[in-house]
Design brief:
This protein has 423 residues and is an alpha+beta fold. It has 2 domains: 206 residues, no CATH class; 172 residues, no CATH class. The chain contains 12 helices and 15 strands. β10 and β11 form a beta hairpin. α6 crosses α7 and α8 runs antiparallel to α9. About 6% of the residues have low confidence.
């Protein structure tokens, strides 16, 4: 088994500035021929192809080639019904996103395929999507999701202003990637979360005023990391007690020197834990990053997180590149195309979502959590960093909405080659 056997974007994220997620439903009786025609024009890339393109970029600083990935729904496998193609048997995959029983969520896995196209040249991507929409008679319906990276200090951020992808889910070898692989393929969960920046800012401001703490600290209590540099709140007593003052008075460089955080920029989020905060007095148990990964040595689920921000008005958005903030505080039509590869959706992503919804009893995740009964449940907030004072209950919710989703399977390159030979 080599990187030529597995699709791109699984071992490592594609790293492009723009993406198109194209959900396609073929006409009755046209699935096989439609796939053969489409893949003939848009060949799927392997992980080795991705590495080769990365080398070109490192040498030249440019790479405007398309990177393409293909993900099949259970509906697609059922329609193929070919003895050469093995249908994945994972129950959650077969049930699809409708198995979550969430109201108002568009079910993208009712389509046959999800085609990922990524490129640094938006013109190349737009030409490809125009071609797919207009020149393939076998296609009945197309849904296109547009991804775009926003950056601060050259690092991707999401619309609330936090660094995105602080933990790099990257694998250099197939052996390392076994926890996310199913054979030479992987299950893909796609979730489209809409973000309400205005509501996030309003709620953090209210918390800040109530506790008389800087808004920077309250934002970190919500997310689990500081917005400015992504530093974990569980590690940041000095940041809370003196850091805001130094940061504003002297700037980031002197702030780091003053507080002794000389390795601040190179902090390894992948290896950190909460051993210094067993009671959640520094970083609340319900904070988003702690909910997603409690780092307690238990089987909490393993995913390779991919995806990208989306914004329906990127050209008109009042985005400040220096501060990485959105002055117009978008109230909708912006968010995250969350993508996660794993070898079992139930044991990994759904376990994380259940934790977010307080099945572990530590509170509702303020970013993506939902109570099972639909009631608004307050969280317990610390009165300071490491404080022994009683926590105070306040509600923080409604800042994201799950708009669409789907469960797919990323087949091996061998299976993709068989798809092009089906007659």
């Amino acid at each position: 088994m080599t990187k030529s056997d597995i699709q791109c974007n699984i071992l490592k994220g594609h790293g492009r500035n723009f993406s198109k997620l194209i959900f396609i439903k073929f006409k009755d009786g046209e699935l096989r021929n439609g796939l053969i025609n489409l893949l003939g024009h848009y060949p799927i890339n392997s992980a080795q192809d991705q590495d080769d393109q990365s080398l070109i970029y490192k040498k030249t600083g440019e790479n405007n080639d398309l990177l393409a990935g293909l993900y099949l729904s259970a509906n697609c496998y059922n329609k193929l019904q070919n003895e050469e193609i093995t249908t994945p048997q994972h129950d959650t995959f077969k049930a699809g996103i409708k198995g979550l029983n969430k109201q108002g969520v568009e079910k993208y896995d009712e389509n046959h395929i999800m085609l990922l196209l990524a490129c640094d040249d938006l013109g190349v991507l737009n030409a490809a999507t125009d071609d797919i929409q207009n020149n393939y008679e076998a296609i009945e319906d197309v849904i296109i999701e547009h991804g775009k990276v926003f950056r601060r200090n050259k690092q991707p951020i999401e619309h609330f202003g936090f660094y995105d992808g602080l933990v790099k889910s990257q694998y250099e070898t197939i052996q390392e990637a076994q926890p996310i692989l199913e054979g030479m393929g992987s299950y893909l969960a796609f979730l489209k979360y809409e973000q309400d920046v205005r509501e996030f800012n309003r709620l953090t401001k209210n918390l800040s005023l109530h506790f008389e703490f800087p808004s920077d600290f309250m934002e970190a209590q919500v997310m689990g990391v500081y917005k400015e540099k992504g530093y974990p709140v569980s590690k940041g007593k000095s940041y809370f007690t003196k850091g805001i003052y130094y940061l504003r008075k002297y700037g980031a460089r002197k702030f780091i020197s003053k507080l002794g955080y000389r390795n601040y920029r190179n902090f390894d989020h992948a290896t950190m834990d909460y051993a210094n905060d067993p009671q959640g007095k520094k970083c609340p148990f319900h904070s988003h990053t702690r909910k997603m990964n409690p780092r307690d040595g238990k089987d909490n689920g393993i995913i390779a997180r991919r995806g990208m921000t989306y914004d329906y008005q990127p050209k008109g958005r009042a985005f400040d590149v220096e501060s990485g903030t959105f002055a117009d505080e978008p109230h909708g039509d912006v968010g995250i195309h969350f993508m996660a590869f794993q070898n079992n959706i139930t044991d990994h992503l759904l376990k994380m979502m259940n934790r977010a919804n307080n099945q572990d009893g530590t509170g509702i995740d303020p970013i993506i959590g939902e109570s099972q009964e639909g009631d608004v449940i307050p969280q317990d907030w610390n009165q300071g960093w490491g404080s022994d004072k009683p926590t105070i209950r306040r509600v923080f919710s409604g800042v994201t909405t799950l708009k669409a989703g789907g469960f797919f399977h990323a087949p091996s390159m061998e299976t993709i080659n068989k798809l092009t030979l089906i007659v």
